[in-house]
Amino acid sequence: MTLPIQVLSPLDGRYQAVVSPLGEYLSEAGLNRARVTVEVEWLIYLTNHSMFGTSPLSADNVSALRALVTDFGQAEIDELARLEATTRHDVKAVEYLVRAKLSELGLDHIAELTHFACTSEDINNLSYALIVRDATKNIWLPAFKAVIARLRELSVQYRDEAMLAKTHGQPATPTTMGKELAVFVYRLERIQKQIEGSEYLGKFSGATGTFSAHLAAESEANWPKISEEFVTSLGLTWNPLTTQIESHDWQAELYTRISHANRVIHNLATDIWTYISMGYFRQIPQAGATGSSTMPHKINPIRFENAEANLELSSAVLDSLSATLVTSRLQRDLTDSTTQRNVGVGYGHSLLALDNIRRGLSEIDLDSDALAHDLDTNWEILGEAIQTVIRAEVAAGRSTISDPYALLKELTRGKRIGRDDLIAFVSGLEIGDAAKARLLELTPAGYVGLASDLVDYLT
């Protein structure tokens, strides 16, 4: 009896459709394709510079070698699996695959330049830099930007929608929904710039980072310069000082930033969830969807709940990578091999969360009446404005009231004060006529300061 393939991770099962674009880069196949890229480009570099008596390859041969990358597919995946079953070494299998291609092209005379003077980590570190860079720029960042773009739209749309703020969960000075969402846009765009400015470092200097084998083969060559030229030709930043491995600090920095982004979005998810529970946002029913197996009226905020869980999982993985990748015993140990293979897990859960958040933000609508009702039943929040105006009047010599804060505290703390109560109180205050007129015109909905205008700082 043949059992169906049992997928261990939900990223490769239930959620595969959402996260599959990452597999193009962060899967084992994606890693092997990048390894082939590095091996092929190193061969082309050496021959282009006529190293060891070689001549530049013909344009057709260069194209044929690079086609090993562009046409990389199931046949190559299967062949690498077959080779590794014998070599018990993943990078050696890649070397043999490239050598076979050289033989097919009649280029056996340069076969010994395949993997020339390289340790496996020379190939691996460049390959990881390539796949993480491309996964970040081509898959993760666009999804991240889509969330920010939707938040920006909602921020502008709701810029003038006054709402009661809640500090410590208690009624506080009003704001606008647009301004509150703009806070998240501003936070996330700062992190976006940091991630976009990330460096992707690479080394190419042999078994312990000393170019020893290189010099033994050709003592006159400027190997550091050759190494730098090759690494930068791949679009990476050259690291001249390493052990056998590239130190992975750039990975720790990048994963920390993405984990930071996760946590800010987690904060967004919990806030939106809370606004939904307060009735500030209505959820738009989705055709055919079921909220509860027993309560037909329900629309559960599952997009935001699922996002929270996936953000937590992503940050757990990425934080672990950030903490462990920066340490390697002496000149090399193999702890980074397994950990780096889990980069896709960290990215996958984050991407899944971004998809949930983006969808969730498109399935909510503001209930302006609910916002207005909360404001109208919390007139006591104007106590802040009143005591501040009294202080200004005292300072200006237009009032002799002592301790304005205590006066308002006695009136409002722990109490519900209505419009008529505030009018009566303000009318009896010893303050200037202009100040009194301003206070008498004030309402909770109108006490939002510059909240609407602050949204403009996003532009």
How would you describe what is shown here?
There is one protein chain. The protein has 459 residues and is mainly alpha-helical. The protein has three domains: 16-118, Fumarase C, Chain B, domain 1 (Orthogonal Bundle), CATH 1.10.275.10; 121-284 and 299-367, Up-down Bundle (Fumarase C, Chain A, domain 2), CATH 1.20.200; 379-443, Ribonucleotide Reductase Protein R1, domain 1, CATH 1.10.40.30. 61% of the residues lie in helices and 5% in strands. It is built from 19 helices and six strands. The strands form three sheets. It has a two-stranded antiparallel ribbon with strand order 1-2. The protein is elongated, with a radius of gyration of 31 Å. The mean pLDDT is 94. It comes from Aurantimicrobium photophilum. One of its GO terms (molecular function) is N6-(1,2-dicarboxyethyl)AMP AMP-lyase (fumarate-forming) activity. Keywords: Lyase, Purine biosynthesis. Residues 328-448 form the Adenylosuccinate lyase PurB C-terminal domain. Its EC number is 4.3.2.2.
Sequence-ordered SSE layout with sheet pairings:
Blueprint: H1 16-26, H2 28-48, H3 59-70, H4 74-87, H5 90-104, H6 120-157, E1 162-167, E2 170-176, H7 177-196, E3 201-202, H8 212-217, H9 223-233, E4 237-238, H10 249-278, E5 281-283, H11 302-324, H12 335-340, H13 343-361, E6 364-366, H14 368-376, H15 383-395, H16 404-412, H17 419-427, H18 433-441, H19 451-454
Parallel strand pairs: 3-4
Antiparallel strand pairs: 1-2, 5-6
Helix pairs in contact: 1-2, 1-6, 1-13, 2-3, 2-5, 2-6, 4-5, 6-7, 6-13, 7-10, 10-11, 11-13, 15-16
